[in-house]
Write a structure and sequence with these properties.
- By secondary structure, this protein is α+β, with helices and mostly antiparallel strands.
- The protein has one domain (9-233): Ribosomal Protein L22, Chain A (Alpha-Beta Complex).
- The chain has 7 helices and 7 strands; from the N terminus they run αααβββββαααββα.
- Strands 5-7-6 form a 3-stranded antiparallel sheet, with helices on one face.
- The radius of gyration is 19 Å and the shape is globular.
- It starts with 8 loop residues before the first helix and ends with a helix.
């Protein structure tokens, strides 16, 4: 998603649950708050279309953390009969939503600054660090952004988030004979995103053997617009 929905932000806000509304109100900057509201409204609209229910009736929970067993693991639907998995990521200028029948992770990143990359390099897999230092300096920030998107997408699909050490898994550019082993049982790929490929990176992680789309599709907000306005008129939202 690169565009805001064609209706009032108040309507999008009304689709969120109490926890999401509280979170939205913690953002000090209006663009950050608007991005959060739009991304979470989009997730609810897409899931509701699959579940054939109203967006506000989509109920979320958390799996136990795959690393420590705590209650802060991967977000899941409480309606287990749905057999749907989802992932959400939003960054300035680009948000991604994935809905699938298998565990999935997506990540959207804007190219970071030089200092951020310098601080993060030491946390990477040793082979990734070597690759980073071999990349020409003028290309390193975008290279790192693409790698980081793969890392985040994989760790979200795995259910550990950044609690799992970034040095443990190789997700660099090398593949084939002689390359370090990649995470077993997973496919992790960058996704093209048109003109934003020079300023942002996007990535998807799914179990090995799952078909990977050629790229994300722009969300057509207007598909949902008539239903939303009709429901708002009768006081459903």
């Amino acid at each position: 998603m690169r565009n805001a929905p064609p209706w009032s932000e108040a309507l999008s806000f009304s689709l969120l649950d109490a926890g999401e509304r509280r979170k939205a109100l913690t953002f000090r900057r209006e663009p950050d708050r608007s991005r959060y509201i739009a991304a979470h409204a989009a997730l609810r609209l897409l899931l509701a279309a699959h579940l054939e229910c109203h967006p506000i009736d989509v109920l979320f929970g958390r799996e136990p953390c795959a690393r420590c067993g705590g209650s802060h693991g991967r977000p899941v639907l409480l309606d287990r009969a749905a057999a749907l998995h989802f992932s959400l990521s939003h960054s300035p200028g680009l948000s991604l939503v994935a809905v699938a029948g298998v565990p999935v992770g997506v990540d959207a990143e804007r190219v970071p600054g030089r200092r951020t990359v310098e601080l993060c390099l030491e946390r990477l897999h040793p082979e990734e660090r070597r690759e980073a230092l071999a990349v020409p300096e003028g290309e390193r920030l975008l290279w790192f952004c693409r790698l980081w998107a793969r890392k985040e997408a994989y760790l979200k699909a795995l259910g550990t988030g950044l609690g799992r050490g970034l040095e443990r898994d190789y997700l660099g550019d090398r593949e084939g004979p002689g390359a370090p082993p990649r995470p077993s049982g997973w496919t992790v790929r960058n996704l093209p995103y048109g003109p934003l490929n020079g300023t942002h990176s996007a990535a998807l992680a799914v179990p090995a053997g799952t078909r990977v789309p050629g790229g994300p599709r722009e969300l057509n907000w207007r598909v949902f617009q008539d239903d939303l306005q009709e429901q708002a008129a009768v006081g459903r939202w």
